[in-house]
Design goal:
alpha/beta
Length: 266
């Protein structure tokens, strides 16, 4: 895949991805179900945070999981072994180069991948070409522009905008959630449907405050601090003040929307 993973490949980021998958499991994956005996291609499996969820709830489905990063794949294999998953196989490869068995899959899915790709339409089209007619392609993506929080603060938005700008500079799109419907249609998929999955957190929902507002979202923004400072997008004092303001939403309210798209191969 083209593009750069703006969040980096650190232990901190791996833990953030695991925390994110735990709190979002039911919201995002209650309907990620495939018929028994089918073959599914997971594109950009990363550390396996989503793999272990989807493979566990589809025990009679075989998953081929690909990623470009060797360290991430090692973590994914370890996670699968920890969960005693026997229905997954991992391969290191650029997704654009994965074409060893054309039309060999019943379904394919992406989760938090297309936002990091400079040519997402091309990638979806390429992967769809490996799915049998009548099969499906599923993608789940966020949209940082859907972020709302109280107390409202322009200063808190500055670090978020830095992340959006840095991801764009890497060739990605942190606002891709809103683009999934036209993107899937342009890739030639049929009967495309997109459903929003809204996260809402306030102190009456302490797990969501801890695992989403704090450990997922704020941790994600904080992870690009050094890149933002090095690129002169913001000063250290402005960054720290903005993060401090953003943390106030843990005692207020926080909302974010993911989008899940599904299209079929003709």
């Amino acid at each position: 895949m083209t593009g750069d993973y703006v969040h980096g490949y650190t232990g901190h980021e791996s833990q953030r991805l695991r925390d994110q998958s735990m709190i979002l499991e039911d919201l995002l994956h209650h309907d990620t179900l495939f018929e028994p005996g089918s073959r599914v291609l997971e594109v950009g499996c990363g550390v396996g945070a989503q793999t272990r969820i989807v493979a566990r709830q589809n025990p009679q489905v075989h998953f081929t999981c690909i990623d470009i990063n060797a360290e991430s794949l090692a973590a994914a294999r370890s996670a699968a072994a920890e969960d005693c998953l026997s229905n997954v196989a991992f391969h290191q490869v650029n997704a654009f180069d994965w074409a060893a068995n054309n039309r060999n899959y019943n379904h394919a899915f992406f989760c938090f991948v297309l936002e990091h790709v400079s040519q997402p339409e091309r990638l979806v089209r390429h992967i769809a070409s490996q799915v049998l007619p009548g099969g499906s392609v599923v993608a789940i993506e966020g949209d940082h522009g859907s972020t709302f929080f109280h107390p409202q603060s322009e200063r808190a938005w500055r670090p978020i905008q830095c992340l959006i700008d840095l991801q764009a500079a890497c060739g990605g799109d942190a606002l891709i959630g809103r683009r999934l419907y036209p993107l899937f249609c342009e890739a030639g998929l049929m009967n495309v449907e997109v459903s929003p999955r809204v996260v809402y957190a306030d102190p009456s929902r302490p797990d969501w405050v801890e695992y989403f507002t704090d450990r997922t979202y704020i941790a994600m923004v904080e992870g690009v601090r050094e890149r933002a400072l090095s690129a002169n997008h913001i000063s250290a004092s402005e960054w720290d003040a903005g993060i401090a303001e953003l943390r106030r939403s843990k005692e207020g309210t926080f909302s974010y929307t993911f989008f899940k798209a599904k299209g079929h191969v003709g």
